[in-house]
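Something for you to look into today, if you have time. I want to see for myself how the chain folds. Leave the record below and I will have a look.
***
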Amino acid sequence: MTTATGSRIVSVGHYQPARVLTNDDLAQMVDTNDEWIRDRVGVVTRRIADNETVADMAAAAAEKALAGSGLTAADIDLVAVATCSSVDRCPNVATRVAAKLGIAAPGAYDINTACSGFSYALGTADHAIRAGAARNVIVIGAEKLSDFTDWTDRATCIIFGDGAGAAVVTAADEPAIGPVVWGSAPEKGETVRIEGWRPYIQQEGQAVFRWATTAIAPIARQACERAGVAPEEIAAFIGHQANARIIDGIAKRLGMPQAVIVKDIVESGNTSAASVPLALSKLVERREVPSGAPVLLVGFGGGLTYAGQVVRCP
C-alpha cells in the first residue's frame, strides 16, 4: 500500500437510543429541577440505552456513515473505536463492529482517552493513512455512560447520556484533516474518573470547569495554526459537549465571529467520546455549513486528556 499525502472525512453518521430522559424525569429521581440543570450545564434531554450495548450503537452509527461514503465493507481496512464505557474488556468494540458490518480482516482497535477519544482516534486514522498502513478507515466514538451513572448522585446523573457517532476517513491528495494537537494534564487526572470493578462516574466539577475554560482555548488555537486556518475563518466549532458554559467560554476566548457554535449537549447531554462525532454528524445532516468549510473539533475530559484538529466538512 502506497503512502498518501493526507486524508479526509467523506461521510458521517450517528445513532442515539429511542428512550428520552428529561430534566423533569430526573426531578422525580433526585433533588433537582429543570431550571437548575439548564442553568448549570445546559442539558434539557439525554438519551438512555436500555438493552443496547456500546458495540450495538457503534455499529449503527458506522453503518450509516458507511452507507453515505460510496464505499462498501470490503473497502474498509481499519476500524478505530473511541470509548471508555464498554463493559467487556475483550473482545474489543472495534472487532465487534467489524463483525456486525461484515468487514473482513481489518485492523481493529479501541482507544480510551475518554471525552477526547474521537479526536485521538481521528488523529491516529490520519496517521495510519499517511503512513500507508490503511486506505479507508471507520472512526467511531460510542458510549453507554448510563451503565456507570449513579442515579442517586444529582451532581453527575444530570449530565450524561448514551449514543454514538462515526466518520469514514479516506486517503486524499490534499489533506482535509489538519494536524492533531493532543496531550494531557496527568497531574489533574483524578478530577474525572471511572474506577474499580463496579464503578460510577465521579468528577470534581469545579476543577474540571476551571481547567477547561482556561486550558482548552490555547490548544484549539494551536490546532488552527497547524492547519493554517485562522479562528476567524472557522465555519463551525464542535467542542466536547461537557457543559454549555464551557463551550461558550472556549468560543469566546478563541474569537470565531463566523462560526456556528454547536451545542448538542442541550438535547443529548454529555456523551463523552461520542459527543464530537455525534454533533458533527448532526451538523452535516442539517447542512449548517457548506461542504469543504473548516470545522474545528476539540475533545477534552477524563484523564485529563485533550485533542483537536481542523477538518473540512464532508
